[in-house]
Each structure stands twice: as structure tokens, then as C-alpha cells.
Amino acid sequence: MCEKNWKSGEKLPCLDSNCLQHQNQVVAEKDAQLMSLNVCTEETKDKCHGNTKDLESLVNEKDSKGQKETNSSFLHAVINMAGMLIGLGQLSTPYALENGGWASAFLLVGIGVASAYSSHLLGKCLQKNPKSRDYKDIGQHAFGSKGRIIAATFIYMEIFMALVSYTISLHDNLATVFLGVKINLGWYHLHTSQILTAIAILVALPSLWLRDLSSISFLSTCGILMSLLIFVSVACTAVFGGVNANHSIPALQIHNIPAISGLYIFSYAGHIVFPNIYTAMKDPSKFTKVSIVSFSLVTLLYTALAFMGAKLFGPQVNSQITLSMPRNLLVTKIALWATVLTPMTKYALEFAPFAIQLERNLPHSMKSRTKMIIRGTCWLNSTYINTYPCSFCAIF
Q1: Can the keyword Lipid metabolism be found in this entry's annotation (predicted)?
Q2: Is-contact 342 87, C-beta < 8 A?
């Protein structure tokens, strides 16, 4: 027994030393695991901190972009909307009133009220769904992908037809302003009016470099001033031009109402830009007030010019009132030049929906100057390739 105990006692120190070595090894492994865990934790913190910085920078970038996009005041919005509405339509209102009768003025006012109400409804649609930014988003929200395609089709058709009408107006009035002037290129056979129209389009090209609607409002202001200048020129024709406003306007010519309705509706064309005006406002809740003020001013100007032109020229009034004014008067030349400049101030605003969508689809890494060049090139190509030939097909 003693021998066995001695042997077992002899083995116990050995077991204790093995246990101590094992415990030390376990402790060392745990320390190593803790150190690696701390290292991983630090790396994770760094990564999280880096991701947080990236997220903050991305949010700040989006906030800065949002601030750039929503920098239009109430006055800027009124100027842009009124500037978009006032244009070529005012030139045809005297012709429409003369052919439809003075009672058709109620139709003009009624269409203006309906257009203003539709603008109000548009603002409500955009307010109800903040993700919607244009007609395509509204179409997709209401009818799915098919609605988006249909809305985009009508938007680009309206842009195209508006560019055509602006180019036709440029051609007609430039031909009248430079009556008798001949330009011969020799190597390329073009009429003088076509060459002048091409030059006018190139002059309007820098307006496409403006990025936001608060900057474009400067052009809208110029367009409004040109429209007021046309109105004053027509009034001066009655005062200083020797043209008596003694023609009687028929009460109502019902058979001409369908034709003149199109002219009145065209006078209020411009809804294509209204979503961009809404999204660019600092306070979109005032969009309805913007619509009421803009449409009221435009309707007042249209009605006054329609009655004044119809009383001055009677049945001899042309589809564009500036072409009915005596050509020997200085005010006529001023009115013609104002009519030439008016479409040039509208190219940028009319092209804005397409330009904004194009810029969104371009890579974010692309420089703003490169985007500007691409935007202007697309506008120039669309004008020359599509608008320019179609306008002259319509003329000739």
C-alpha cells in the first residue's frame, strides 16, 4: 500500500505540472483570441466609421443637389410660368377674336380658367406623391409602365411641335424684317430666310447652358418684356400710326368656333414645363397661387390685345398681328424684332424637361461642362435634324 501511495504521490506533481502547462496554454490562446478580436473590432469600427463618412458625404451631396434644384422663389415661378404661357399665342388672338366674334372672348377666358385649374390639379398630384417629379412619374403611378411610355411620348411630341412652331415664327418674322436682303453662300443653296433662321438658332444655343429654372427666369423675363413691347407697339400704331380703331367686331360667328378654339388653346400651351417649375420651388405649397397669378395676367393681356387688334385691322387682320401693322412705321419694326426675339427666349424653357431628364441619365462622375455640351448638342441636333426641315416643309 505504501509503495502504491508513494508511486501515486510521485505521479501527482507531474500531473500538477501538466495541468499548469495546459492552463497556461489555454490562457495564452484566449489572450491571442482576445487580441485578434480587438483587432477585428478596431477594423470593423474603422470600416463602419468609413462607411458612415461615405454615407454622410452621399447625403450631403444629395442635400446640396436638392438645394440647387429647389432654389426658385415665388417670383421666379410666376415669371417662368407667365413667360412660358405668353408667346406666339398672343399674336393670333386678334385674328381669332375677329373670326369668332367678340363673344368668343368668353371662350378665351373659360379656356384660361380650365387651364389654371388643370395646373392646380397637377400640383396636387405632385404633392400627393413626393416621388413624382414629372408627367412620366404621374403616368407610371396611375397606369404603370404603359402610362409612363404614353406620357413620355406625348411630352416629346409637344416639345418637338413647339420647336417647330418657334422656328416657323422665326422664319416668317425674319423674312419680314430683312425684306429685300439677299445672302448667297455659293457652295450651298439656301434661301436668305433659311440662313437667317439658322443663325438665329445658333444665337439661341448658349441659353441651353443655363442649368436651373431660377437662371432661366432671366430669359422668361426677357420674353415677357418682348410680349409687353409688342402690346405697346400695337397700341402706338393706333395713336401715332394713323390707323383708326373703328372696325366693328361681329358678335358671334358660330361656324368659326372650332377653328379659333385651337388658337385659343394654343395660347395657353406650356403645361409641359409646369412639373419642373413645381419641383424647383422652395415652397411648392404656393404653386396654386403661382398658377392663379400667372394665368390671370396672361388672360388679361390676351383679351386686351385681341380686342385692340380686331378693332384696328378688322377683317384684314393676319394670323400674326405684327404682319398686319404698317411696315413704314418704327413701332412695326420694333414689334417685328420683339417677335423674332420672343421664340429665342423660349427655347431653353421649352427644352428644360428633356434636358433635365437627359442630365439625370448621364453618369454622376461626368463633369458639368461635359453635360452642358452634350445637352446643347442634343438640342441643336434635334432642332436642325427635325424642326428645321419640317418647318420649311410647312412653309413651302
Answers
A1: no
A2: yes
Dihedral (Cα; 341, 347, 348, 351), 10-degree rounding: 170
- The answer to whether 314 and 98 have CB atoms below 8 angstroms apart is yes
Task: Of 254, 261, 360, 250, give the one whose Cα is nearest residue 307.
Answer: 250
Q: Three-class SS string for 220-281?
A: HHHHHHHHHHHHHHHHHHHHHCCCCCCCCCCCCCHHHHHHHHHHHHHHCCCHHHHHHHHHCE
Three-state secondary structure call for residue 101: coil
**3-class state of residue 72 by DSSP:** strand
187 DSSP 8-state letter: S
| Neighbouring residues of 344: CB distance < 8 A, sequence distance ≥ 6 | 170, 200, 203, 204, 207
Rounded Cα distance between 246 and 37, Å, is: 98
Amino acid code (one letter) for 1:
M
Residue 116: partners with Cβ closer than 8 Å, 6 or more residues away: 291, 292, 294, 295, 296
Using the structure block, give the residue that is written with the C-alpha cell 427655347. 347
- Phi, psi of 188, deg, nearest 5: -145, 125
- CB distance 323 to 172 below 8 Å: yes
Longest CA span, the chain: 148
Judge contact between 100 and 107, C-beta under 8 A. yes
CATH (one of 1.10.10.10, 1.20.1740.10, 1.20.190.20, 3.40.50.2000) for 72-395: 1.20.1740.10
Q: What counts of helices (H) and strands (E) characterise the chain?
A: 15, 0
Render pLDDT for 287-298 as a digit per residue (tens, 0 to 9): 999 999 999 999
Give the number of C-alpha atoms closer than 13 A to the C-alpha of residue 48, restricted to the C-beta side.
6
pLDDT, tens only, 118-142? 999 999 988 888 888 888 888 888 8
Interatomic CA distance for residues 354 and 335, integer angstroms: 31
The yes-or-no verdict on residue 22 having pLDDT over 80 is: no
The predicted model scores a pTM of: 0.69
Grid cell locating 160: 418637338
Enumerate the domain spans of the chain. Answer: 72-395
**Residue keyed to cell 409687353:** 228
